[in-house]
Amino acid sequence: MVGIVGYGAMIPRHRIKVEEIAKVWGADAPSYKKGLMLWQKSVPTPDVDTITLSVEATKNAIKRAQINPKDIGAVYVGSESHPYAVKPSGTTVAEAIGAVPDCHCADFEFACKAGSEAMFVCLGLVKSGYMKYALAVGGDTSQGAPGDALEYSASAGAAAFIMGKTNLIAEALETYSFMTDTPDFWRREHEFYPQHGGRFTGEPAYFRTVTGAAMGIMNKAKMKPKDFKYVIFHQPNGKFPLRVGKMLGFTKKQIEPGWLTPRLGNTYSGSSPLGLTSTLDISKPGDMILMISYGSGAGSDAFVWRVTDRIKEARDLAVHTTTLLDKNQIFVDYGTYAKYRHKILKNK
Amino acid sequence: MFPSRIWREMPQRYRLEAAVCKKCGKRYYPPRLVCAECGGRQFDTYVLPEEGKLLTFTVIRTPASQFSDLAPYAMGIIKFDDGLQMMGQIADCDIDKLKIGQKMRLEFRKIQTDDTHGVLSYAYKFIPKWY
Ligand SMILES: [Zn+2]
């Protein structure tokens, strides 16, 4: 059996409220909050990027895994905000945790599912016996264009998972991927902000793909929504995961522990992976967890996890995700946010 | 910073690797080539803890241009349990509430970007301990 040996999260401390963004663009904050079901998002400071978030999340995963980082045979970071256009984020992550030089490394990209893609590949590499442990990280410091609907949700955070065969915290019982060419969201080379297809991002893209992946994996595993204690969907806003859950027959209670977007924003590649970390933080041995990511373009990776006894000793070996999310928040105004996110043009 | 210097200092900056003299046991961070106590040239590597206490600090209000987005910020020296000291920037804090003796946690951060085209340099900063 393969699965998760260690998991960890990292979320920046700074937050901006929907009201603060709406004020600048003359938008109606209550309708944005209701429409997106989201009231604030995390903001990375200028010294935080996908690499620093990935390193901190990975250190937390290593604390829970209690392994020697030298035994990690692959480092895969999934993101749509890799700091370099050419030079993998994973090189710095691997160097910082001491997994070099006996290590395979690549960066993954697939909009918001780059992290789950890395998880998928790591499980395969470990299962094949190719390596003892493999590290998958999903993390982003995403940007929405000023004034665009995405600016209210695009946030920052990362989750890391070390996959292995022994001492598992959660076993991967089933995996499945659903993927088509659906151009709902994209960013061309050299463009700073992404473009999206407005309402097209909903029905034919997110909902079709997520339900396709959910039904595909439940068929494969011969399971029904009631067989799962928890479910995590990708959460571009607060509303979509609740709606897709209802369409598939899941309850709000099953979704809630991993439903972080209302107070975190959309962490893109970190979204469903971070939801999995906060769900593992409160789960019990034997709990079945369904996780469905979504990446625009478009595809979903699906996983059925079964939590093991080791969760009891492992969960408190590193900081819980809700501690990072809900404690010690630092609120910033739009001016500070614009400076931090380099939205202000300065003289060189 | 030159890529060669960033690369050379990765063990200490990325992994907090310090050196302990094989002959007399004196510890160094950053590591050195020759022991100042005994002249020894052989060292073992050990990794610094992730927490220390704030020994002293100062507030920078007029920084070099590459740090202007962060001003005003505090630079501090922390002391680890084994007596070693380290200097670095204090992040995510209210500079008016910093107190000598308070516990600090080390966190991996981006230090310099070298404009928009150079190599990014990373290292640890200090964050007031909050969990
Ligand atoms: Zn010596």
Describe the fold and architecture.
The complex is a heterodimer of chains A (348) and B (131). Chain A has 348 residues and is of the alpha/beta class. Chain A has helices spanning 18-25, 29-36, 50-65, 89-97, 114-127, 202-221, 239-248, 252-255, 261-264, 271-282, 311-314, 321-326, 334-340; strands spanning 3-10, 14-17, 40-43, 72-78, 104-108, 133-141, 156-164, 170-182, 185-186, 195-196, 230-233, 288-292, 297-307, 330-331. The longest helix of chain A has 20 residues, at 202-221. Chain A starts with a strand and ends in an 8-residue tail after the last helix. The mean pLDDT of chain A is 96. Chain B is mainly beta and 131 residues long. Chain B folds into two domains: 1-48; 49-131, OB fold (Dihydrolipoamide Acetyltransferase, E2P). Helices cover 9% and strands 40% of the residues of chain B. Chain B contains two helices and eight strands. Chain B starts with a helix and ends with a strand. Classes of the chains: A alpha/beta (348), B mainly beta (131). The A-B interface holds A 13-14, 45-49, 51-52, 55-56, 59, 83-84, 92, 95-98, 319, 323, 327-328, 330, 339-340, 348 and B 10, 14-15, 69-70, 91-92, 107-111, 115, 120, 122, 125, 130-131.
List keywords for this structure.
heterodimer; A: about 350 residues; alpha/beta; Peroxisomal Thiolase, Chain A, domain 1; 2 domains; 9-stranded mixed sheet; 3-stranded mixed sheet; 13 helices; B: about 130 residues; mainly beta; OB fold (Dihydrolipoamide Acetyltransferase, E2P); 3-stranded antiparallel sheet; 2 helices; binds zinc ion
Topology:
The complex is a heterodimer of chains A (348) and B (131).
Chain A: E1 3-10, E2 14-17, H1 18-25, H2 29-36, E3 40-43, H3 50-65, E4 72-78, H4 89-97, E5 104-108, H5 114-127, E6 133-141, E7 156-164, E8 170-182, E9 185-186, E10 195-196, H6 202-221, E11 230-233, H7 239-248, H8 252-255, H9 261-264, H10 271-282, E12 288-292, E13 297-307, H11 311-314, H12 321-326, E14 330-331, H13 334-340
Parallel strand pairs in A: 2-14, 4-5, 4-6, 11-12
Antiparallel strand pairs in A: 1-7, 1-8, 2-3, 6-7, 8-13, 9-10, 12-13
Helix pairs in contact in A: 1-2, 3-4, 6-7
Chain B: H1 3-8, H2 10-15, E1 17-21, E2 27-28, E3 43-47, E4 51-60, E5 73-79, E6 85-90, E7 103-112, E8 121-128
Antiparallel strand pairs in B: 1-2, 1-3, 4-5, 4-7, 5-6, 7-8
The complex binds zinc ion.
Zinc ion binds next to loops of chain B.
